[in-house]
Amino acid sequence: MLITDEYMKQMILRTRNYTTVILKAAQNTDDPEAEKIIWEHARRNFSLREEGKLSIVCPINDGTEVKGIGIFSVSEEETRKIMDDDPAVKAGIFAYETHLCRSFP
User: How far apart are CA 38 and CA 89, in angstroms?
Assistant: First the structure.
């Protein structure tokens, strides 16, 4: 398929806002309860997916400080509220940063 300027312009009009979360290791990653807390963090992610708020969630286990990426379908403000209430963030196991982005639904 030839990707023309017109096609690109039409497709760009279909994009919508998302909020990207980059999850990083924080100071309490060695907490003895970390595994249990991370399990509950994952359970919460399943719930957020079921609610349609977390479109894509990608755990990362490559030995770096980055522990995951999530694409939320809600505003950045709501995403921050969600993340601030995350059990692993509250326990200081994970920290996060948000970035606004656009993509196709």
Answer: 10
Q: Which two tokens stand for residue 86?
A: 């995350």
Report which of 49, 51, 40, 88 is spatially closest to residue 71, judged by C-alpha positions. Answer: 49
Residue indicated by tokens 């505003």: 75
Is residue 54 within 8 Å of 71, Cβ to Cβ?
yes
What pTM does this model have?
Answer: 0.90
Q: Which of 82, 93, 84 is nearest to 47 (CA)?
A: 82
Please, which pLDDT band fits residue 17 given cuts at 50, 70 and 90?
A: very high
Q: How many CB atoms neighbour CB 95 within 10 A?
A: 16
